[in-house]
Structures are given as C-alpha cells and as structure tokens.
Amino acid sequence: MSLRISDAVVWQETAEGVSLYHTETGDFRTLNESGSRIWMLVADNGEREPVVSELSGEFAGSNTAMLKRILTDVDEFISALVKDGLIEEHLS
User: Could you tell me the superkingdom of the organism this chain comes from (predicted)?
Assistant: First the structure.
C-alpha cells in the first residue's frame, strides 16, 4: 500500500517539529520529534516498509525486540494519521 499526504493538509517543518493543518476539519497539531521523523519519511517515500526499515536501521540495530517495537509503533502512528484523514493509503 502506498501512502501520501492528503491534499487537504497544509504542513511545514518548524523548530518544534512538523506542524499540520487539516483544511477540511480545522485540526491543527504539531508532531513531536519521532512523529515528525515518520511524517518526513512518508513524505519522501510514500511506503510503510521503507519508513520502518529506515527507523529500524537508525534505532534498533540488531535488537529484535526494538525492531518489533518500532514496527508496532510506526504502524499504529501511521494508522492514526490515516484514520484522522491526514495521510491517505492506497493500493499500490
């Protein structure tokens, strides 16, 4: 499945993280460092697997437990963004 940022979202990277504004719902939020990193990887790549792979390489190394935790956390975070209409997921 491919991911893309919704056309209804205006966003920018700031010193505090990534700030998002959903123009249709009025939802405004600023993502923390981890959320911002995931957002930028989605914006650059558009696929779940490369996002997880990149973060795993950065933070898990060969630690299997950490790899599983990253996979779970990233999937939950992306799923929440999809549910909130900030990211759209499409069949590739």
Answer: Bacteria
